[in-house]
Design goal:
single chain, 136 residues
Length: 136
């Protein structure tokens, strides 16, 4: 099997991470149900045992350590369910992952989304012709 590419500062969620994080992600998925969220709030330790979290996963849950959860096989989409219990959203998770404040993270997202109203001549030369466009 080929070694996955290394992306500095990124934990690649691949098959190995998915298998590693199965119990954690399964538990977080359960938080779609209000009764399960309440059961977790009542007894976090028992709930984690019920889902078979390993020591690293349980520690990261206790410490609310987003990066630790990702390293332990957590998938950000499932972790968002856990974050919701804490009153956090995906932008809070992104901020924690990048070491930014939430406001800094939101500003970075807005800046990355800024697009010019028109392309420069150089951009147009590099732009592919999309199906249905007038460019040939």
């Amino acid at each position: 099997m080929r070694e996955p590419p290394s992306i500095p500062g990124t934990i690649l969620f691949d098959g190995v991470q998915a298998a590693k994080g199965y119990a954690l992600n399964r538990m977080c998925f359960s938080f779609n149900d209000a009764a399960h969220r309440e059961a977790f709030r009542r007894d976090e330790e028992g709930y984690m045992r019920e889902y078979g979290l390993d020591a690293a996963q349980a520690r990261a849950i206790r410490e609310r350590d987003v990066l630790g959860l990702l390293e332990a096989g957590g998938n950000v989409y499932y972790l968002a369910k856990f974050a919701g219990i804490l009153g956090l959203d995906v932008q809070d998770l992104g901020a924690a992952q990048t070491g930014m404040s939430k406001d800094e993270f939101k500003a970075m997202l807005v800046k990355q989304n800024e697009q010019p109203d028109t392309l420069s001549e150089e951009d147009e030369k590099r732009s592919p012709a999309w199906p249905g466009s007038s460019a040939a």
